[in-house]
Model the fold of this input.
Amino acid sequence: MSTRLGVLVSGGGTNLQAIIDRIADGSLDASIELVVSSRPDAFGLKRAEKAGLQTLTLSKEIYADPMEADEVIASELVARKVDYVIMAGYMRMVHDPLLASFPNRIVNLHPALLPSFPGAHAIQDAFDRGVKVTGVTVHFANADYDAGPIIAQRALPIREDWDVDELEAHIHDIEHELYPATIQLLAEGRVNVRENGTVEVSPE
Done:
């Protein structure tokens, strides 16, 4: 049986599209049961609708109370028997109602090699710092921002002649490969969180 996903978006939805494409070509054994957007104008909603997926957009009034918003999202995802919640450019923290419903089953993508450069401006921060290597991290979300157990990382050496836009484009290229591949590891049941909070990925 395919792994059932709920996907949370806030913006353009390019990582959502990468997941949709990998499901379509058979390299990701999953189904998307619901796409939730924190913004009614998010282009990710159009991507979802084009793919025939069910969507849910919560109003600013509901999001004014983060706990209420996450209770609504959690109940909708539980009702659809979702296995994993995939944050794909979702620009809000998740809180107890979601975390309790999906312990170690909410997955986030971060455009840096955590624990370096947490937060919402990771690409710019890494560029400004002048680091020679950055990358992408896939991790489980928890109550601490960008601090959950790390599932996968991929490094990206930064060329001297790149500007920040070129760096961002290369980061996104890695995201679109690494995220679906990591979700496939979850679908295969190969990811285990140890008691010490580190992640073990078993071989095929």
